[in-house]
């Protein structure tokens, strides 16, 4: 199976020209072309079954342990971005629902969850983790349907990591006094948690698991384009026998999130999303005694030195920017490559990109799925057009885009300068900007020339250079000779406009304790 033998076609010119639309989704995965004289191999379709998940026509809010419609009856549709088909109608929470959820969370905090011994709280977290594992296939299919991400990523990354977070923080629940935050660290109360659409279940786990382990109760607001796995997680909470009100899920758009953030009953706000909304939330919370953590955007440098093994670096570059369609806050969206190896790295990268398969997210062979929404697709189009207008050279492999749905071909820009918008602004799509450098000092200067500071990658044979670079780079997470590796024990977070506070590991507990 699988050719992996596609033609490198740097001469094929602009991506827009090669990214044709027209195939039906079942036959959508773009087939890499064979090199002259080589046999043409085709992938047989390998669809995961959609039947493992049953999607209800309507979903309510999860408040005080039960599902209920919004007080004013408002709903909105959530759509499969690969086909534009509506999947379900979902309740849109208004002010009365926010009041009810925060009230339920406050009651559960005072009467049940905070007084409960940590060893008892841990049992619930372990149960949730095990349920996530048992229902992993169902969660993975639902995530791919609602988000558009390839099933192999939801199946092998999102869902296992979400379960791992619950397992990890379950282990901390009865050991908080040994976490390094004093002999008697206290929870904060009710956490209002607002999350984005790029890793819907995983972001919910990042937020809920440490908060619950520390003894807080939660009101979670998933993104409006991807509410379904958070609602399935609410069902898992019911299944695990979690006391009513400990976890509440309010679906809705930005206005629901804003109402939650400003609610006086919320004592801790945790937000993951865009820098723009993060700044607005910081303004709302300023002057109150709410504790705040912000996980915002990024524009990471993935830095390749001339002594790096080229093929491995190319895999790391691909993983860095094309994983999850580039909808990754820590994506390696700026490739900084040492000038002496720039041509060969770009040539090998283009050859590798020609083997990627774009199409049906439920096909197990798919590498690149759908863009999550029309709005996000418009943003990617706008910024890539700006890249061309500013004089960078655009390239995409030959790639047939499905006729329906939101799609964008993997795209590489060369000839990018630091002042270009595509080198400065977060595109949040499968678009790589390539810049070059000559010396390590120049690499550091260019990498740090960003308002963000979430992550970076270093590819080199020399350990001493890795350590020196890591000390110079202003980024919360730095990977060496790998990229996009996540572990619940490892803290994650940013500098500057990438936000503040850390999630994951022991550090992630501090955000939910009165320390
Ligand atoms: P977004 O900021 O538009 O929305 C994020 C969430 O905030 C959604 O649930 C949305 O409904 C809600 N929201 C919108 N306006 C609000 C308001 N005024 N008050 C309260 N809540 C509001 O971001 P997005 O487009 O969904 O997500 C993409 C962004 O998230 C990217 O910039 C990405 O880098 C960032 N992100 C960061 C991390 C990280 O850990 N640093 C992780 C994932 C995504």
Produce the secondary structure layout:
Blueprint (H helix, E strand, L loop, with lengths): L14 H4 E5 L34 E2 L1 E3 L2 E3 L6 E6 L4 E7 L3 H19 L4 H17 L1 H12 L3 H22 L17 E5 L5 H14 L3 E5 L6 H12 L7 E3 L4 H9 L5 E5 L2 H11 L5 E5 L5 E4 L5 H13 L11 E5 L3 H12 L20 H16 L3 E3 L3 E4 L8 E4 L6 H4 L6 E7 L2 H9 L6 E5 L3 H10 L4 E4 L18 E2 L4 H6 L5
Parallel strand pairs: 1-15, 2-6, 7-8, 7-10, 8-9, 10-11, 12-13, 12-18, 13-17, 16-17, 18-19
Antiparallel strand pairs: 3-4, 5-6, 11-20, 14-16
Helix pairs in contact: 3-5, 3-7, 4-5, 5-6, 10-11
The chain binds nicotinamide-adenine-dinucleotide (NAD).
Nicotinamide-adenine-dinucleotide binds next to α8 and α9.
Written account of the structure:
It is a single chain. The chain is α/β, with parallel strands linked by helices. Helix content is 37%, strand content 17%. It contains 16 helices and 20 strands. It has helices at residues 15-18, 95-113, 118-134, 136-147, 151-172, 200-213, 228-239, 254-262, 275-285, 310-322, 342-353, 374-389, 421-424, 440-448, 463-472, 505-510, and strands at 19-23, 58-59, 61-63, 66-68, 75-80, 85-91, 190-194, 217-221, 247-249, 268-272, 291-295, 301-304, 334-338, 393-395, 399-402, 411-414, 431-437, 455-459, 477-480, 499-500. The strands form five sheets. The protein has a seven-stranded mixed beta sheet with strand order 14-16-17-13-12-18-19, sandwiched between helices. α4 packs across α5. The longest helix is centred in the first third of the chain and has 22 residues, at 151-172. The chain is globular and about 70 Å long. Mean pLDDT is 93; it is low at 1-18 and 22-28. Nicotinamide-adenine-dinucleotide (NAD) is lined by residues 194-198, 221, 223-224, 253-254, 257-258, 261, 272-274, 277, 280-281, 295-298, 329, 426, 428, 454, 494, 498-499.
């Amino acid at each position: 199976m699988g050719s992996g033998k596609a033609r490198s076609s740097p001469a094929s010119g602009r991506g827009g020209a090669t990214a044709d639309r027209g195939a039906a989704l079942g036959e959508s995965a773009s087939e890499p072309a064979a090199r002259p004289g080589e046999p043409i191999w085709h992938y047989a379709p390998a669809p995961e079954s959609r039947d493992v998940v049953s999607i209800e026509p309507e979903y309510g809010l999860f408040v005080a342990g039960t599902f209920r419609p919004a007080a004013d009856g408002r709903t909105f549709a959530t759509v499969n971005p690969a086909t534009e088909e509506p999947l379900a109608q979902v309740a849109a929470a208004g002010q009365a629902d926010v009041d009810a959820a925060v009230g339920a969370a406050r009651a559960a905090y005072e009467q049940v969850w905070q007084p409960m011994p940590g060893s008892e709280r841990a049992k619930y977290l372990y149960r949730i983790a095990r349920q996530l594992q048992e229902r992993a296939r169902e969660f993975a299919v639902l995530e791919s349907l609602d988000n558009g991400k390839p099933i192999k990523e939801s199946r092998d990354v999102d869902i296992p990591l979400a379960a791992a977070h619950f397992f990890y923080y379950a282990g901390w629940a009865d050991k908080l006094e040994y976490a390094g935050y004093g002999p008697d660290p206290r929870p904060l109360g009710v956490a209002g948690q607002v999350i984005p659409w790029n890793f819907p279940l995983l972001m919910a786990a990042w937020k809920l698991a440490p908060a619950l382990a520390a003894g807080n109760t939660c009101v979670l607001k998933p993104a409006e384009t991807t509410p379904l796995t958070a609602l399935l997680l609410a069902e898992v909470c019911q299944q695990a026998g979690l006391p009513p009100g400990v976890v509440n899920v309010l679906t809705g758009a930005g206005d629901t999130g804003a109402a939650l953030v400003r609610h006086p009953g919320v004592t801790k706000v945790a937000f993951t999303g865009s820098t723009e909304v993060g700044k607005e939330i910081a303004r709302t919370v300023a002057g109150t005694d709410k504790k705040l953590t912000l996980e915002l955007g990024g524009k990471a440098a993935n830095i390749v030195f001339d002594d790096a093994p080229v093929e491995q670096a190319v895999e790391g570059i691909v993983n860095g920017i094309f994983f999850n369609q580039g909808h990754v806050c820590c994506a390696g969206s700026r490739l900084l490559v040492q000038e002496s190896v720039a041509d060969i790295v770009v040539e090998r990268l283009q050859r590798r990109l020609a083997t990627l398969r774009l199409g049906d997210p439920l096909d197990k062979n798919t590498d690149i799925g759908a863009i999550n929404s029309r709005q996000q697709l418009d943003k990617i189009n706008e910024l890539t057009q700006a890249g061309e207008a500013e004089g960078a050279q655009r390239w995409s492999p030959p790639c047939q885009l499905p006729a329906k749905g939101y799609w964008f071909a993997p795209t590489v820009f060369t000839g990018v300068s630091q002042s270009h918008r595509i080198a400065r602004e977060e595109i949040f799509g499968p678009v790589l900007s390539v810049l070059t450098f000559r010396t390590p000092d120049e690499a550091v200067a260019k990498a740090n020339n960003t308002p963000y500071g979430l992550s970076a990658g270093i590819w080199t044979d020399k350990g001493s250079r890795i350590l020196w670079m890591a000390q110079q780079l202003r980024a919360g997470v730095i990977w060496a000779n790998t990229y996009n590796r996540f572990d619940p024990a490892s803290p994650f977070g940013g500098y500057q406009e990438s936000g503040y506070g850390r999630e994951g590991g022991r550090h992630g507990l501090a955000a939910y304790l009165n320390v």
